[in-house]
Design a protein that fits this description.
Structural class: mainly alpha
Number of helices: 10
Largest sheet: none
Strand content: under 5%
Distance between the termini: 95 Å
Radius of gyration: 31 Å
Length: 195
Amino acid sequence: MKVTSVLLALSVGMTSIVASVSLAASPNDNPFTQTLKSVPTAELPSRAALIVKKAKAKEREATTIAVVTAAVQLNSVATPMVVGAISKAVSEVAATAAATATGLQPKQAVAIAKAAAAAAPSQARKIVDAIGFQVPDARNAVALAVAEVASPAVAVSPLPPTIQPPYRPLTTTPTNVNNSTSGSVPSGGRNYAAP
């Protein structure tokens, strides 16, 4: 009986939280939806980055969340570009932008991570952690994608193979062996037995 009442209370609580979050995230409540709606699609990432850059330092996190939410609701295809532009303009909020976008578009987690890490390589670890928190199943793929982008010298041009410890260098110069220089061979061939 107690278990049933606890489960009922939890389900009612979760339903009210989900309902309040979905109502709070409606486009009508977001002040940046109207601003970004008037922008041409090609300029959406740069305008979103400009809005975040102009925000006061104390308000940048909240502004980033609101701007990314509005941009994703207006054009979900442009999500990685929006996150990349914001991350390049203000690298401190790269993880926040990536996490917000991934929460809204979880199937684009790898593309969002690549865009954010390419624009703000110093924030790579925070980006992986933030996206991994939003979509735990994609954490490994996100980490690999960010590693590729954050350190392009290693990913694009790997070092050539090197000779290392299992290999033992020759002590003499190799020569060809022929019958005239090979020394004496005992008679009997393969059936030879030592005396």
